[in-house]
């Protein structure tokens, strides 16, 4: 159990927390979605080097829950927020916000929209000018997701998501997230695209190749992303991933004294 050494910046924070002089920053609820397509490939974005959190890292689409994501007026189809609360081990309001954030952020960051005119249909094309203008309005927070769906006569398809994992940013970090990981299959007819924003590059890549590139240092993968990709390596079809029997486990790396050195330890079963 060696872990990763802390930088001086974080060693100081860790010492202050251990001594009770500093309290951890509260973790914000967040959602991230592993978008899959047959091959088997996943959609990854490289965060801009200027970003305050995870700069340069290859990540899945996702982000923080917006207060409006918990709005009960969000048109909904599929498992209810109450059902999702059981899956995510949260209260119903939090579950509603997490699922809504997962669908909204995926659309904002990839153009993939897990919604349709009814409970058994999915939008076939989101590349038009109106969808693009509304995507930018969602990013700018001048449009709520509930109003976006109502405008287009759509319902959120919660059945197109599957809960996969739960990671909480270490307490020593300056910016922290309590993130639920979901998986989703790219809807037929839709295509993910480079939509810019917080990312400067996007790729479709097999989980196995992403893991190899991460281990060789060719790309930067944060531990939760690396772990999730590793879990997907045995699969060959997106549908099999979505149908996998999955129990969500919560992980939060912790600071520990290892041989007199402060190091960040990832739980043994999440290595």
Automatic annotation (TrEMBL):
Q: Which GO terms describe its molecular function?
A: hydrolase activity, acting on acid anhydrides, in phosphorus-containing anhydrides; metal ion binding
- The answer to whether UniProt assigns keyword Magnesium to this entry is yes
Which InterPro entries does the record cross-reference, listed alphabetically?
A: NUDIX_hydrolase-like_dom_sf (IPR015797), NUDIX_hydrolase_dom (IPR000086), NUDT19 (IPR039121)
Where in the numbering of this chain does the Nudix hydrolase domain appear?
26-227
Known cofactor(s):
Mg(2+); Mn(2+)
CDD domains annotated for this entry? NUDIX_AcylCoAdiphos_Nudt19 (cd18870)
Q: Could you confirm whether the keyword Chloroplast appears in this record?
A: no
Which of UniProt's keywords are assigned here?
A: Hydrolase, Magnesium, Manganese, Metal-binding
Protein name (database record): Nudix hydrolase domain-containing protein
